[in-house]
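Journal club side-thread
Mid-discussion, someone asked how the predicted structure for our own chain would compare to the paper's figures. Pasting it here so we can look after the session.
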Amino acid sequence: MAGTWLFTSESVAAGHPDKLCDAISDAIVDACLALDPKAKVAVEALVKGREERSHIVLAGEVSLAAGIEAPDFVAIARATAAAIGYTSHGIGMDATSDDLCEVTELITSQSAHINRGVVQSIDEQGAGDQGLMFGYACDETEAYPEHQGRWMPLAIALAQALTRRISLLGRDGTLPWARPDAKSQVTLMHGDDGQPMYAETIVIAVQHKDMIAEHGSEAAEQAWIRQQVIDHVIQHVVPSSLIVEGNTTIHVNSTGRFADPGGPYTDAGLTGRKIIVDTYGGRGRHGGGAFSGKDPTKVDRSAAYAARWAAKHVVAAGLSKECEIQLAYAIGVADPVSIRVDTFGTGRLKDEAIADLVKAHFSFKPGHIIRDLGLAAPIYGVTAAGGHFGRHPDGPTFPWELLNDAVVSAFKDTV
């Protein structure tokens, strides 16, 4: 790409209403898989606060093996929201109170027509739905030691890291005034070599306790919050080389205030509404299917993970500077109907040759993906906020981010 260019990505914190719904849906997935690794789950949540009480609505389908009693979906929803920080009606929701938060559960069994297409042997297990999925990787993060190993577009890697840190510091007491609801956005200026030069704009919005009485004025409150966010969040996430005086603008709560109440009180939330936040921040394409609330037989989730896994190997092996892999499926059919590799002109081999290598080293049959990545396990709750990709595995989590050294070596040997 000739000339300089800007690219922007955003992220939202665990307490954003949409992410709250993703967390509830994934907590239900984990609870079901903990009871039955072959559980079929497709559950969405809706949250909305009102003056008198808040509401959580659960809807979808769950099927467990005969004799296994379903978990308490209502209790899971309440516990998940409370763990994120929604324990006060004054900030937007008190999920611990039956009086101040009503949970409506509308969950039935999975359609038998879908079930018969996916309950097969590991080699023949069909996709849980038709659709297309994309996986993407690039080398932008690798120039920065604090973000190495992510193999991600830098703008989304930074935006996601900012919201993860805000959530962490709110929970651990470093920022006791910060509420669960927050957002970030990072705009990077790229050079004609495609690599980031500096951060042009960093945007943070974080709900906060009303502190005008403590600071004396709205302006003083805003100035203090801004400095707290710069000192404790931005400076710990964004490499100092990217913050250039005169070129970098920082906005913190740019409307002036984001005081209580917030969260579900000010904005309804829905599962699956932050699919670009969850993935590559707009740099890689998206097939349109959400991840949260779905068991791994749903290729919207598992095949997107597998495509990312393969694309990361291509870039980490030096076959290209960026790589996007598209998979497409027909419901009930095991083999993808198409596999496509695009390295955007950065490949050291032709895209067709890289596609052949990918096909030789990765199986994209749903049963094989679940087996190879260990996806029939309760590992999804941690994915609900902070991004599904570019995360560092911890135990069984984020297995699609692990590099297989033998595959990387085999790829390197071809160039």
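Post-session note: The CA atoms of residues 296 and 302 lie 5 Å apart.
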